[in-house]
């Protein structure tokens, strides 16, 4: 393969025409309006998004191979503006989830590399968010994490490990702050 064709392939690997069209259709919508329209546009682009789910702003969605098959969002979820969804691996969001402003669901990361370049090999692990959970504003969910049913992730938390059901977690890294009534 020629150098030019390899460069062209590398530079366009993340280009997804259906996602681009969904973004263009929704671009004129002001924030906090057209939540159902955004969900419909993403559904028509090929994502599995349940009935009654609202997007208050168009999320930033990244990923390459099989992008559309990597995201499942349940019914009656509310996803606020500025969210980032990294689809290097499957991300499954249950029903009745609330996702706050600027939440990041990051299914890919890097191993720590040698001194010459600390960003080592890329790895991807799935993320699961149990039904009824609430992810507070600017929280970050890292690869391989499962958020338990009806758990709450406090604003600004960085979740590096699985979260049990019916607990409030917060901090960097996130830890259980208290149990919640089931």
Task: Give a structural overview.
It is built from three helices and 19 strands. It is α/β, with parallel strands linked by helices. The protein has a domain at 58-170: Hexapeptide repeat proteins (UDP N-Acetylglucosamine Acyltransferase, domain 1, 3 Solenoid), CATH 2.160.10. The strands form four sheets. The protein has a seven-stranded mixed beta sheet with strand order 2-5-8-13-16-18-19. It has a five-stranded parallel beta sheet with strand order 1-4-7-12-15, covered by helices on one side. It has a five-stranded parallel beta sheet with strand order 3-6-9-14-17, with no helix packed on it. Strand 18 and strand 19 form a beta hairpin. The radius of gyration is 17 Å and the shape is globular. It starts with a helix and ends with a strand. The mean pLDDT is 94.
- Note poorly predicted spans: none
- Total number of strands: 19
Measured by DSSP, the beta-strand proportion falls in 25-35%
Task: Report mean pLDDT, rounded to a whole number.
Answer: 94
> How much helical structure, as a percent, in the residues?
10-25%
Q: How many helical stretches?
A: 3
